[in-house]
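quick q for whoever's on today - can somebody do inverse folding on this one?? i tried earlier but teh output was garbage lol. tokens:
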């Protein structure tokens, strides 16, 4: 049984039942079916498959943390009205009322990776997203059967693009010497990336969510590990508080890169492919130098 909706959402649902008219899978500004994707990364991935046939709307603004984002009343209504909600994992978008959507797709669940139950950051390995594209195409086709062939065709084409991206990222990371292939990040976000491209994840002061607490003992252990392992640089993503990583870097006398785009799109990384390319290059440059 699904848990009961939060009280504000119950009121919104009631108001929609009394006053709404027309097909709930349709956007008020378009006669196309409407899909909501939680983050900019998810929205870009879905848009590549949707093309012009479905309206894809992003829920969490770029730069905001998906772990703790709180919806406005307007956003709650849009979530309820959407024909489909696409998100990565309840472990990532834990602050969102995911059950409010009548129809949803969790990308991490479609991949079936052993890591995905504990680590929601599946998109940091593009081969995992490639594996999820057929499920995304099927979900869009269920919403809009008339354009099913287009969704399948675009999913295949985007899969080819992600396969080429994977090869490119392998080439970029090949520049990092074996002794430097060690990752420390502000929160536990780089596991999929490390597994795919042959890095060892040393640790993070925070857990899978950046809102977790970093104890003094854990911080001291991380500084010791950075020094012992000879880690040349540590990484914080845009949106995380960089001060803790700067402290680690200062104590261990290593470089710090505090502007990675890993959970959000941004300047120079307006698409998922651009984000992966840019962040991978920054990681490779910092660990190669």
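ok took a stab at it. sequence:
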């Amino acid at each position: 049984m699904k848990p009961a909706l939060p009280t504000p959402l119950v009121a919104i649902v009631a108001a929609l039942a009394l006053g709404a008219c027309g097909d709930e899978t349709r956007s008020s500004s378009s006669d196309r079916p409407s899909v909501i994707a939680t983050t900019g990364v998810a929205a870009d991935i879905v848009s590549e498959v949707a093309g012009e046939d479905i309206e894809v709307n992003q829920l969490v603004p770029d730069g905001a943390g998906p772990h703790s984002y709180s919806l406005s009343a307007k956003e709650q209504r849009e979530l309820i009205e959407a024909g489909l909600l696409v998100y990565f994992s309840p472990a990532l978008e834990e602050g969102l009322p995911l059950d409010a959507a009548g129809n949803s797709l969790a990308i991490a669940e479609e991949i079936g990776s052993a890591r995905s139950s504990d680590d929601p950051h599946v998109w940091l390995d593009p081969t995992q997203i490639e594996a999820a594209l057929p499920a995304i195409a099927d979900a869009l086709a269920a919403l809009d059967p008339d354009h099913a062939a287009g969704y399948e065709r675009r999913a295949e084409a985007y899969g080819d693009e992600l396969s080429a991206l994977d090869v490119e990222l392998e080439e970029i990371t090949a520049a990092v010497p074996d002794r430097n292939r060690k990752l420390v990040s502000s929160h536990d976000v780089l596991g999929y990336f490390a597994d795919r491209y042959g890095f060892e994840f040393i640790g993070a002061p925070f857990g899978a969510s950046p809102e977790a607490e970093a104890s003094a003992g854990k911080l001291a252990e991380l500084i010791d590990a950075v020094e012992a392992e000879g880690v040349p640089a540590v990484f914080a993503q845009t949106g995380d508080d960089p001060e803790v990583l700067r402290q680690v870097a200062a104590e261990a006398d290593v470089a710090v890169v505090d502007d990675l785009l890993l959970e959000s799109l941004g300047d120079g990384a307006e698409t998922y492919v651009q984000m992966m390319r840019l962040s991978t290059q920054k990681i490779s440059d910092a660990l190669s130098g």
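fwiw Confidence is low (pLDDT under 50) at residues 1-29. also DSSP finds ten helices and eight strands in the chain. so keep that in mind when u check it
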